[in-house]
Specification:
Blueprint lengths: L1 H18 L9 E2 L5 E2 L3 H13 L14 E12 L5 E12 L7 E6 L14 E9 L2 E3 L7 E4 L1
Helix pairs in contact: 1-2
Length: 149
């Protein structure tokens, strides 16, 4: 059931983006009336549990195709467009994506209030991200979760 909810969320997210104009400059989503779209804490927990259960690329859901999944240590944090956060993470475990362990990836996320992830320097995260406009982006509802230090 959890996998279905996560798959359904990813499909809805992609449909919103394809419909045009629903991705804000900070990486958050909005509906046609301008309301910011976020998930409930329970929906976020379910997405995080789904990501934590994935051990290899073969275990990724079909709706995750095209995204990247990895564990990485946050090395730096900077401010991005519209008060978003851009974190540089050093990959410690690659699950899916065209990069290697040891590579550094920059990932943008909106503010926490707008559905983003609270990245903390020195902490390790499991990150699911997708590329938009040449930038990897993630959200709390995508399941990105802190693993510890």
């Amino acid at each position: 059931m959890r996998l279905w909810r996560f798959s359904r969320w990813m499909l809805v997210t992609l449909m919103l983006i394809c419909a045009g104009g629903c991705l804000n400059p900070d990486g958050s989503f909005r509906d046609l009336e301008g309301n910011v779209l976020t998930k409930t804490p329970e929906e976020v927990r379910q997405a995080q549990q789904t990501l934590l259960a994935i051990k290899s690329e073969a275990g990724m859901l079909p709706s995750m195709k095209g995204g990247v999944l990895f564990d990485g240590n946050v090395e730096t944090i900077s401010i991005g467009p519209e008060a978003s956060t851009v974190a540089t993470l050093k990959v410690v475990h690659r699950i899916s994506g065209a990069f290697s362990e040891g590579d550094r990836l920059r990932v943008q996320t909106p503010s926490v209030a707008r559905g983003g992830v609270l990245f903390v320097e020195g902490r390790r995260f499991r990150v699911f991200a997708v590329e938009f406009d040449g930038q990897l982006r993630t959200w709390s509802s995508a399941g990105t979760v802190e693993l510890g230090s």
